[in-house]
Amino acid sequence: MPLPTLAQIQEQRIARFTQLIQQTLAGERLASFLPLVSQLSEDYDAQAIAAAALQLAYTSIQSEKSEQATLQVLSKKAPERPAKPVKPSKTNQRYETRDSRPATPRHR
């Protein structure tokens, strides 16, 4: 089964969003936003107000879904690997084997 194209995914998102809008239009809370629409309609066309509100809602929904997906990925920890022992390099060994006393000046 082939993976859906970006256009198909976008079409499905818009279809789900349209259903949400229709459910909201049938809901009871719609009346609480009507005064805001009345106020905005003094300066803007009703279609422009609706389009702006839809854009805000759609962006918010997509952002929330993206955030949830990110949190889900981040919550899945990668298996921890045991720490590798530090292997001393030849340079470190040379300094470690030297005498730790301060150097004294040589007299000639």
Describe this structure in words.
By secondary structure, the chain is mostly helical. 61% of the residues lie in helices and 0% in strands. The radius of gyration is 33 Å and the shape is elongated.
Q: What percentage of amino acids are in beta strands? A: under 5%
Largest sheet: none
Query: Helicity, in percent?
Result: 55-70%
Q: What average pLDDT do the residues reach? A: 80
Radius of gyration computed on alpha carbons: 33 Å
Q: Which tags fit this structure?
A:
single chain, 108 residues, mainly alpha, 61% helix
Layout of helices and strands:
Elements: H1 6-26, H2 34-40, H3 46-75, H4 90-97
Summarize it:
This protein is an all-alpha fold. The protein contains four helices and no strands. It starts with 5 loop residues before the first helix and ends in an 11-residue tail after the last helix.
